[in-house]
Please model this.
Amino acid sequence: MKNQDWTMEKLLRVLIIEDSENDADLLVRELRRGGYEVESERVETGEAMRAALAQKTWDLILSDYKMPRFDATRALKVLHASGLDLPFIIVSGTISEETAVISLKAGAHDFLAKEKLARLIPAIQRELKDAEARRERRLALEALRESEERYRLLFESNPNPMWVYDLATLQILAVNDAAVEHYGYSRTEFLSMTIKEIRPDEDVPALMAALTENQDELHVPAVWRHRKKDGTLIDVEISSHSMQWAGRPTRVVLVNDVTERMRAEIRIKTQLERFASLHAIDTAISSSTDLHMILYILLNQAITRLKVDAADILLYNRVTNMLEVAAAQGFQTAGAQEGHIRMGQEIAGRAAYERTILKGYFAAREGASLVIPRLADEGFTWYCAVPLISKGKTTGVFEVFEREHQSHDRDWMDFLNMLAGQTAIAVDNAMLFNSLQRSNEDLRQAYDATIEGWSRALDLRDRETEGHTQRVTELTLDLSGKFGFPEEEFKFIRWGALLHDIGKMGVPDSILLKPASLTEKEWEIMKKHPNFAFQMLSPILYLQGALDIPYCHHEKWDGSGYPRGLRGGEIPLTARIFAVVDVWDALRSDRPYRRAWSAAQAREYIHIQAGSHFDPKVVEYFLPLI
Model:
C-alpha cells in the first residue's frame, strides 16, 4: 500500500514514439490509471525524437515497434547516440519472437502487446527501478575516479555488492557489507577467496579468457553467473574499473543481481514461442480439414514447447465407449500407440469420465503406484492426462509423458491446457465437417434422385423420346469435359441436361403428342417450353445453376433461335454444348414422320450447321467423340 501511495504522487515524464494519436492517448490513460501524473509528448520521426530528447528531461520512452516513417530499432539508435540512459519499452500490436529478441539485444528493456496493457505499470515500475539502479552505479563509478576517499565511502555504503581484487592473483582484497549480506559469505571468507571461486566451475575458462582480452580502464557491464554460499546460482551484471590499491594494480567491481530480469526474459521468450505454436495450430485448424495432420502439429508443438518425451491424443468412440489412440509421438514401442481404453478405466479413462486433469508418477519411481500396461516398456516416470472437452462434451484425452520428470510452473500447465483446448476444437470441427459432408452427400443424392425422377416422368409422357434424356445427359457431360469446367459445375450441367425439356410439362398433350406436323399456332405454343422451364425452375434456389440448358438450348449461333434470339457468345456455353448433343440424338432417333438418320448423315448435318446453328468450336470438339 505504501508503494501505491508513492506512485499516486509521482510525476512521470514520458516520450511516446507512436504514429497513432489514439494509441498514444490509450497509453497515457493507462499510466494515469496506474497512479501517475503524466507529462508526455508524442513523436513519430527521428528528427522529432532527437529534438524532444534535447529540449526536455524524460523518465521513460514508450515506442511502437513499426511506423510508416520510423521504427523502434532506429529509435534505439537515436537514444544511444544521445548518450541518455532511459528505460525503453516497446508497446506493439504484433511482434514476432525473432523481432523481440533482436530488439532486446539492441537495447530495449522490455516489450509488451497493446492488448495486454495490464503489464504496463509493473514493467514501468521495474524499469524505472533498474534505471535508477544504473544511474546510481554510474554515479558510483564516476565518484570513484574523482576521489579515493569518496570512493571508500561509497564502496562501504553502496547498496550493491562491491569488491576489489588483485589483477595478478585474482585474490579478493576488499568487500563491502552489501556483498557479505547478498552472497552469504563472511568478510573473512570473502577475503580468502579468488574471483574464480564465486563462479561455477564450467564458467571459469570464459572468465579467464575475458580477463586476458579485456584490459580497458573501464569495463562496460557484462552478465555472468555467480554462486552464493548456499550454492544458489544467480545472474549478475558486472561493471569494473581499474585502479591502484595499496600500490598494486587492482580492479573494483560493482555487482547488480539481474536474476529476476533474466528469468523474465526467459519467460518472455518462452511465451513468444508458445504464442507462435498456438498461432501455427490456429492456422492449421482454420485452413485444413485433415484431422490427422492437425493432431500431428499439436503433438509436435507439445513435445517441443513443453519439453516432454512423448505425447498422444486419445479420441472417444461413442459406439464402443472406448478411448482410441488417434495420434502419438515420442514412443519407443508399438504397443504404446495401439491403446483402447474403456471410459472410466485406467488414468486416461478416469480423466475423460471425471472430466478432470490427472497426473502422477509411474510405479518405476520409488513411492509411486501409477501403472499403465501398454506403456510398461517405455521407461516413463511421470504422466499427465487432460480431458478434451468441447461444447460440454468429452471428445478424448491429451496425454504427455516424461522419462525424467522436471518441475513445472503454472505457465507450463496453462499451455498444456491451451493445447488440449485447441485439440478439442480441432476434433469438434472435424466431426462437424464430416457430419456436414455426409449431410451434403445425402442431400445431393436426394436432389439427383428427384431430378432423375422428373426426367423419367418426362420421357414416359413423351414416348417418342424415351431414353433420349439419359443419352444426351451422358454425352453432354463427356463433351463438357473438353472445356475445362470446374468440378463443382458438372452437377449443374447434369441437372440441366436431365431437365432440358421440363418446360414441355406446360405444353398441352394435344400438341406435344400430336403424330402429324404442328400448325403454325401450335408451333408457337411449343416454342414457349424454354420460357416455361425458366418459370418452373428459377424459384428453386439449388437449381438456379442448372437453368442455362433448359432455358437456352434452342438458341442458335447466328441469332435465329428462340426464345430470346441470343447470338454467339451471348448463349451460355453449356447451352451451346447441349444444343449439338440434342440435335445429334434427335437425328439418330426414329420419329413417326421419319426414320433415324445414319451416323454419316447426322455428322454431315452437324458439320454444315457449324457457324449458323452451332458454335463452331463446340462442333470441333464434338465430332471426334462420335
